[in-house]
Amino acid sequence: MRPGWLLKLVMLAAAVSVAGACGDTADGTGATGGSGAAGGSDNTGGVGAGGGASGTGGASGTGGASGTGGASGTGGASGTGGASGTGGASGTGGASGTGGASGAGGSSGMGGRSETGGAGGDAGDGGAGGAGGCFFEGGPILIDVVDVDCNTYKVITIGEQRWFKTNLKTTRYRDKTPIKTGLTDAAWANTDEGAYAIYDDDPQNDTLYGKLYNWHAVKNPAGLCPEGWHVPTPAEITALRLFLGFEANDGGKMKSTSGWDGPNTGATNSSGFDAKPGGQRFFTNGVFTDEGTRAAFWTSRASANGGFVTFAFHFSFFNMTDEFFDGPRSQESGFSVRCIEDTD
User: Fold this and answer.
1) b/e map 22-56, b = 16+ CB within 10 Å
2) What are 261-281's pLDDT values in tens digits?
């Protein structure tokens, strides 16, 4: 067993931080909200349970049915879009009007106001999901960015740049085209198509380190990072280093202080980049190597042909030194990807 396995388990537990499930909707309908609590005499009924979150552009839920003789409940407020319309006044137990269209999924409506102690109105249904939207079970979560697979990413600001705090995990390009995977060692070393792998095909490594991508996936015009984000250019790496001081120990400022094989020389993570040692998939034979000792990341720029291989620029860090390494590597290499925010 590789040294540091116990620490790896601790890292894995810390990495699983988002409660509930996530998935794609295909014009699906959000979950139905619960009924409002019964109102007392001349009292407002309780608020119904939250409707399921819809995809962007989903219609808001229908307003709840009013109590006896009371005014109807207000339609559920949408998430991102405008608030839904207020239900129409009821007669005796009449249903309220339908809410207006929401943006992202609306929460449930309030129960209807009861004049004579009637039951509060039913909560509105969750908004209908827009095509391809993400939904999260278990309530709202605090996130910065979501990719097309509904993976979530925190963001760190370093100087004037905003970076993902963790490595990319998507299995699809921005246009939702699947990225090739499941390649044998020999196929990995010889493909000229975009592809990804998980280190040792172990799902725990996907949680800890994200995916390893060849550079053919990076250069795909469909886009690898989410909308508004991109794989960094060498010029952006230079700007990052200038902010760090362009010093010999800049690598230590980028490395996480845990999760590496010893000695993890000079690691301070003072930048907040939190580079983890996710290793690589080697370009000549497709073998996984360097987990625990190396963190390697692609840039978006190709470099000159190096004989029998074609190169692209990358940057990397090692456990035995605090230096910041960058330069050309074979495009068939499997490296991690960190996305940086667009600035124009």
Assistant:
1) bebbeebbbbbbbbbeebeeebbbbbbebbbbbbb
2) 999 999 999 999 999 999 999
Asked if residue 257 has pLDDT above 80, the reply is yes
Whole-number Å distance between alpha carbons of 336 and 59: 39
What is the end-to-end Cα distance of the chain in Å, rounded? Answer: 47
Supply the Cα-derived Rg of the chain in whole angstroms: 26
102, 183, 332 from 75: Cα distances, Å: 11, 51, 54
74 CB-near residues (< 8 Å, 6+ apart)? 63, 84, 86, 87, 109, 110
Phi-psi region of 117 (alpha: psi -120 to 50; beta: other; left: phi over 0): left
Q: Measured between alpha carbons, how far is residue 306 from residues 107, 178, 286, 289, 296 in Å?
A: 57, 30, 19, 22, 19
Instruction: Give how far Cα 99 sits from Cα of 25, 60, 108, 255, 294, Å.
Output: 21, 6, 11, 51, 54
Dist. CA 202–CA 186, nearest whole Å? 19
pLDDT beyond 50 at 94: no
What distance in Å separates the CA atoms of residue 115 and residue 35, rounded to the nearest whole number?
A: 18
CA distance 226 to 144: 12
